[in-house]
Amino acid sequence: xxxxGVLAVQGDVSEHARAIERAATAHDESxxxxxxxxxxxxxxxxxxLMPGGESTTISRLIHREGIAGEIETHVAEGNPVLATxxxxxxxxxxxxxxxxxxxxxxxxxxxxxxxxRQKDSFEAPxxxxxxxxxxxxxxIRAPVIDYVxxxxxxxxxxxxxxxxxxxxxxxxxxxxxxxxxxxxxxxLAFFDSVxx
Length: 196
Ligand code: GLN
Hints:
Protein name: Pyridoxal 5'-phosphate synthase subunit PdxT
Function: Catalyzes the hydrolysis of glutamine to glutamate and ammonia as part of the biosynthesis of pyridoxal 5'-phosphate. The resulting ammonia molecule is channeled to the active site of PdxS.
Strand order of the largest sheet: 2-1-3-4-11-10-9
Structural class: alpha/beta
InterPro entries: Class_I_gatase-like, PdxT/SNO
Number of helices: 5
EC number: 4.3.3.6, 3.5.1.2
Bound molecules: glutamine
Radius of gyration: 15 Å
């Protein structure tokens, strides 16, 4: 069974928990979900999910609780992470915002809320590298990825801007794959890279 830690200090935690369970089932695997609100749990997790929500809050709480350094170690040891929307903002190398202390686990910078305000949230059929059919991508006050390092693979773009990226064990999306039934992003983040 895959032990999946969902960062649960704030954000759409239960949606990610369901999404990883769906993806695991599709692989005849099971996922044991661990909600991370304190230090000491990340080191036992095979994979980590960093949900959408409010990046200023998530970043403040993971540093206060001593979780931030554990996430950095998890990635340094080559273990998979999926970071979506606010999660990607926190994972980035810079968010151009003093209120967000980023983790720098993905070599990319982001501009918060740059795909529009809440009312401009939208769903788009997204072409993703390796997917046969478009992925239904839900964008909610999504960050724009405004720089990616040369080792970062761009998996999908919208409006000529990267919206899904992979940097080693870390997959980041501007959109919310946890809000649709489609398991393919969780699949590529975890089951294409984890030995089964
Ligand atoms: N706008 C949020 C932030 O900057 C992210 C939005 C989201 O996760 N849906 O933290």
